[in-house]
Amino acid sequence: MRVAERDGGYRDSNGGRANTKGPSVSSFPTLSIDDFKGAFSFDDFFQNIVTDVLPPADESKPFDGSQSFGNGSSVDSGGKGNDFLVGQPFAEAGVLLPLCRDARSELVELCYKVDSRLENLKDEVSNYDSKHEQKFAELENGVAALFESFSRLDSRISGVGQTAARIGDHLQNADAQRKAASQTIDLIKYLMEFNGSLGDLMELSSLFTDDARVAEAAAVAQKLRLIAEEGIGIYGGYSGQQKSGTNVTPGLEVAVSNLQDYCNELENRLLIRFDNAAQKWELSTMAECAKILSQFNRGSSAMQRYVASRPMFLDAEIMNLDARTVKGEFGPGGVPNVTKGLQSLYKEIAETVRKEAATVSAVFPSPDAVMAILVQRVMEQRVDNVVANILPRLSLTNPRPMEDGGFQEYLRILAGSYEKTQELAKELHAIGCGDLDVEGLAESLFSSHREDYVEIEQASLTQLFQHRVAELKSGIGLDAAYPTTAPRLNSRNGMASANTTISVTVVGEFVQWNEEAIARCTLLTPQAATLATNVRAIFLCLLDQVSQYTTEGLERAMDALNEAAQQRNLYSIGSTVSRRVAAAAATAAEAAAAAGERAVRGFMVAVQRATSNVALVQQHFVNSVARLLLPVDGAHASCCEEMATAMALSEASALKGLQICIDTIMAEVDRLLAAEQKAIDYKPTDDGNAPDHRPTNACTKVIVYIRAYSDIGSGLLSVLVGGSA
């Protein structure tokens, strides 16, 4: 086996050099490295080598299975090549072989050249890298030196800047001192002008006479006043130490007096200009004058002048219109609804103040101070006038008649006006009023009405109670107060029957009045401790009213029981009367028994209603009163004890009446037994038969009678248990 070598020869498998056969024909074109640059194609390279040796191929003849090669070989039509070639294969090989050897030699030489060039390139690249690293190191050193130079330059610039800043500060200080010195010279000159003759303001500089420089003149005049007043203090103390008879240089009293006169004159001129601008509604001129006037007593004169000139404080018709607006709203029945009218008026006042706030913000440099004066004037003049008109002072010794609403109507107006006034105060505070405590000012408007509020509230509850009781005694509102279908029995003294002695509806009215009073007390008494004391006093009124009403009702029901007992005793007869008298007495006794039965039933109903009324009071105490008593130690427990004490009298009357009911029932049982029981009912039979154990007629009637009262007693027991729960 032979292996091709790089130099164009061959060596065998043992490493020996083999000789080539045949002579070397060198007609190979010279190759260059540039021939392999770009897109290299081996087919084109081979074609260039053999194009002069091989004949061109006939591409017009298609190749088939029986086509013969140039060397005599062929392929059969069956698609299978012959196993043996006929004739000499590749006759052109002898010509191509030298060309291939020459091409190989040329290519090997090119490889050597390429390798040599690569080695040279490696050396060049290595030298270039060395030079680049050296240059990079030199650049780094240069950059470091440049940064150091920049740092020195920055320090130098900073130092120069600081020096320039110090120089600028010195220049500014010098300029400020120059200006201060110039202003001091001018002030001294102006001060000497004012320190001439007393009252002589004719020889003043143009600054103080030019209307176009009023603002500057006002500022200078204020400075001169301060200087002159300080000078009087200094030189006045010094001159006080001089002995009498020595010559003392006159001080600055003349300057102070003249400056005061000038400032007053200037302020008056500005106020006149401000008023003229206000009449023409020239806001820019008003703002200019207000700004200058702010240097005189902080502008209080302009603020007071503006607020006092508002139409709502000058026009008396507006005050009358306020009263008509409040009383112009009517409620049900044509009664004036003062609260609704007050709400309409306060809405109009708030809208007016809101418009004034916009003007004040555009004119005055300190709008909060002006709004404080305006809002205070509104509260003290308009609101106070309205409150005094709708809330006249009341006297407990001369109560307001119920036809005019009584004390309750006054208290409702008081609570409504207080609430609406507080809402107005909050709205005015939201609009803006500076540091003014407008809510506290609103509180002060009602201070005189709140001094004796609790006494008036108690008098109102007493008045309502007495009026309602008088209506019940006169028969007014009985159908609404006593919604019962039970028949009524008129006693001899003309009082209502037992069924109309106590009403849950009436006590519900008492509780409703008390709830309304406690709601007013909560509104009018913001302090927790005072509120607890007032609420306790108001609740005690309810306890007294319910206790009195319940006790009197139970006593009237007991009067019916006693009357029935008297009738029963009146018709009791002995056993020695005639049959006709006994029959008449029996009829009267039955009538008295029926009256007693109605009286017992009426008393049971009264006890049930009294228990329901107590439950109403207890529920009212839990829902509305108890939580308000907690801020005061012991108030809750004390109120519970007083509630138990107030109900003790009613409980005693109820127990006494129940005992009378039991006596009445037992008397009726005795009457039934005496009338119906016969001596033969328990006599044994003569025939010896067993006795009849069926109940007698008397026993049956007594059982029916007792059972009827048992049903009433069960209902009463359930009510008592529910009320105690």
From TrEMBL:
<dbReference type="InterPro" id="IPR048627">
    <property type="entry name" value="Sec10_HB"/>
</dbReference>
<feature type="compositionally biased region" description="Basic and acidic residues">
    <location>
        <begin position="1"/>
        <end position="10"/>
    </location>
</feature>
<dbReference type="GO" id="GO:0005737">
    <property type="term" value="C:cytoplasm"/>
</dbReference>
<protein>
    <recommendedName>
        <fullName>Exocyst complex component Sec10</fullName>
    </recommendedName>
</protein>
<dbReference type="GO" id="GO:0006887">
    <property type="term" value="P:exocytosis"/>
</dbReference>
<dbReference type="Pfam" id="PF20667">
    <property type="entry name" value="Sec10_N"/>
</dbReference>
<feature type="region of interest" description="Disordered">
    <location>
        <begin position="1"/>
        <end position="25"/>
    </location>
</feature>
<keyword id="KW-0175">Coiled coil</keyword>
<comment type="similarity">
    <text>Belongs to the SEC10 family.</text>
</comment>
<feature type="domain" description="Exocyst complex component Sec10 N-terminal">
    <location>
        <begin position="105"/>
        <end position="210"/>
    </location>
</feature>
<feature type="domain" description="Exocyst complex component Sec10-like alpha-helical bundle">
    <location>
        <begin position="497"/>
        <end position="707"/>
    </location>
</feature>
<feature type="domain" description="Exocyst complex component Sec10-like alpha-helical bundle">
    <location>
        <begin position="216"/>
        <end position="472"/>
    </location>
</feature>
<dbReference type="Pfam" id="PF07393">
    <property type="entry name" value="Sec10_HB"/>
</dbReference>
<keyword id="KW-0268">Exocytosis</keyword>
<dbReference type="InterPro" id="IPR048625">
    <property type="entry name" value="Sec10_N"/>
</dbReference>
<dbReference type="InterPro" id="IPR009976">
    <property type="entry name" value="Sec10-like"/>
</dbReference>
<keyword id="KW-0813">Transport</keyword>
